């Protein structure tokens, strides 16, 4: 970490130029000849990335940022807060500490947090920022986390791991064994130091593939922010052998809702033609793959085995979007010309042979407005269009 970045005139420059075009800034003559210009420009770019994602850091003076890519890859504060709600006890060790967002929030629930980071520069940056933020319960341990576990010879209530994908496996199927650290290979070693392990993975990881590589999985939390799945959280408990639960968590500005079921739940869905209300699952629910269990859990009917849309007469609470169905149209030329062609609406396709772009082009539909048009297939295998209003 370069302490020159903390000089008053440089910090003022970073604040004043946050939000300005980085490409243009990079071409400026360096007004601070005693420091590399690239370092200053990186601080401006990284701080801009932190504005919405990391407001606590953004609004704190003299924060030092790592490379911009580290900000892009780190958890948001919202996701970190959710993780922290899943742990309790006296101590936690993070084997892949990074910029330290998760540990900052872990430390609000856990008295002693150990932040391990292989990158010595990043470890120093995190330690500096923790001090500024008043996170005094966090101990920074620079160096290899495996060696740190052996050296510290302690037992923690929780262990947290965010493995990073190796750069040499591009184009291959995403597996945990292809990440650093190699958690499947090290798992039994890790359980010597903690009975409870949380592993964060990217949404790209297939749940069945993850379960095939790991053991002792107690729960999997699929976390979506504003209907985009951001991360999978694997909760492991030493010697746990029962069927894990799957929790799909939908977090947005208005509320947080979740849907919980057991992995491999074999309950059968009920089916019906469209009724008064339509339900579209949140992306976290879609990632869970528990589509029949959704029908059973919320007591709503599926429109078709492959449509993943649901319906009911009575409105129910739901982990996803809810609509009132105002019109049900057969997908026929005359109906399209009368009700669809040339209008402004939000188009969604589910189990339908055309893409949104194809439909918009064919029927000259303008995107936007208050009408939501779902092009789908009903249980009688008929192509239909549901014109809806969002609740």
TrEMBL record:
<feature type="domain" description="THUMP-like">
    <location>
        <begin position="320"/>
        <end position="390"/>
    </location>
</feature>
<keyword id="KW-0808">Transferase</keyword>
<dbReference type="GO" id="GO:0032259">
    <property type="term" value="P:methylation"/>
</dbReference>
<keyword id="KW-0489">Methyltransferase</keyword>
<dbReference type="Pfam" id="PF18096">
    <property type="entry name" value="Thump_like"/>
</dbReference>
<dbReference type="GO" id="GO:0008168">
    <property type="term" value="F:methyltransferase activity"/>
</dbReference>
<dbReference type="InterPro" id="IPR041497">
    <property type="entry name" value="Thump-like"/>
</dbReference>
<dbReference type="InterPro" id="IPR029063">
    <property type="entry name" value="SAM-dependent_MTases_sf"/>
</dbReference>
<dbReference type="Pfam" id="PF22013">
    <property type="entry name" value="PG_1098_Fer"/>
</dbReference>
<feature type="domain" description="PG-1098 ferredoxin-like">
    <location>
        <begin position="278"/>
        <end position="316"/>
    </location>
</feature>
<protein>
    <submittedName>
        <fullName>Class I SAM-dependent methyltransferase</fullName>
    </submittedName>
</protein>
<dbReference type="InterPro" id="IPR054168">
    <property type="entry name" value="PG_1098_Fer"/>
</dbReference>
